[in-house]
């Protein structure tokens, strides 16, 4: 009987420790990646403002060529929604909605993930005209992990999980736009 009580005391204490650590842990994350593209900023922005074009450069879109896609609204305009449904464990099911367009400068979107986990995150693309047909593109991503799940931010390497795919996606974008 003492062994069972000791076991439950240890498990309960460990559980309480995890909850305290989660309470003291960050719940927000944010990453950005940049790339320089040898193309006029107007051409670059006119490509990235259309969510359907993300299928051509996004690492996640390339993970599952059989992903089911659907669209609502006018692409490139506020309110347009691109939805996906995939059996691939790293793609899942969700949707992305255009929330704000600053023509020629910035595209803000909201990502709503439904599977394999639920989350709402914000993303954006920003273009900076560097002159001489050169454009800096910034791809940003931010989110919030609610308590007590935020403890996972201590063990998940967001640089690898998000930073690498963002950088690879920008490289793909550069390759596409510089070939045009």
Describe the structure in brief.
The chain has 180 residues and is α+β, with helices and mostly antiparallel strands. The protein is built from 5 helices and 7 strands, in the order H-E-H-H-H-E-E-E-E-E-E-H.
The tally of helices reads 5
Biggest β-sheet: strands ordered side by side in the sheet: 1-7-6-5-4-3-2
User: CATH homologous superfamily?
Assistant: START domain
Top CATH class: Alpha Beta
Per CATH, the architecture is 2-Layer Sandwich
Into which percent range does the helicity of residues fall? 25-40%
Computed structural class: alpha+beta
Average pLDDT number:
86
At the fold tier of CATH, the topology name is: Alpha-D-Glucose-1,6-Bisphosphate, Chain A, domain 4
Strand content is: 35-45%
For the termini, the CA-CA separation is 74 Å
What is Rg?
A: 20 Å
Structural overview:
The protein has 5 helices and 7 strands; from the N terminus they run αβαααββββββα. The longest helix has 23 residues, at 2-24. The chain has 180 residues and is an alpha+beta fold. It is 34% helix and 36% strand. It has a 7-stranded antiparallel sheet. It has a single domain, classed as 2-Layer Sandwich (Alpha-D-Glucose-1,6-Bisphosphate, Chain A, domain 4). 18% of the residues are buried.
């Amino acid at each position: 009987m003492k062994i069972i009580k000791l076991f439950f005391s240890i498990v309960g204490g460990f559980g309480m420790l995890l909850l305290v650590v989660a309470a003291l842990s960050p719940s927000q994350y944010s990453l950005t990646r940049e790339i320089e593209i040898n193309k006029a900023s107007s051409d670059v922005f006119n490509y990235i403002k259309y969510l359907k074009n993300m299928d051509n450069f996004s690492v996640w879109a390339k993970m599952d060529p059989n992903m089911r896609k659907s669209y609502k609204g006018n692409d490139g305009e506020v309110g347009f929604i691109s939805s996906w449904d995939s059996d691939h464990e790293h793609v899942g099911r969700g949707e992305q909605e255009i929330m704000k367009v600053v023509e020629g400068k910035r595209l803000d979107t909201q990502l709503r993930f439904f599977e394999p986990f639920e989350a709402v995150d914000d993303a954006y693309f920003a273009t900076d005209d560097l002159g001489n047909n050169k454009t800096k593109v910034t791809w940003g991503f931010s989110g919030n992990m609610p308590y007590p799940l935020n403890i996972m931010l201590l063990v998940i390497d967001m640089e690898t999980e998000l930073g690498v795919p963002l950088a690879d996606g920008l490289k793909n974008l550069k390759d596409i736009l510089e070939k045009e």
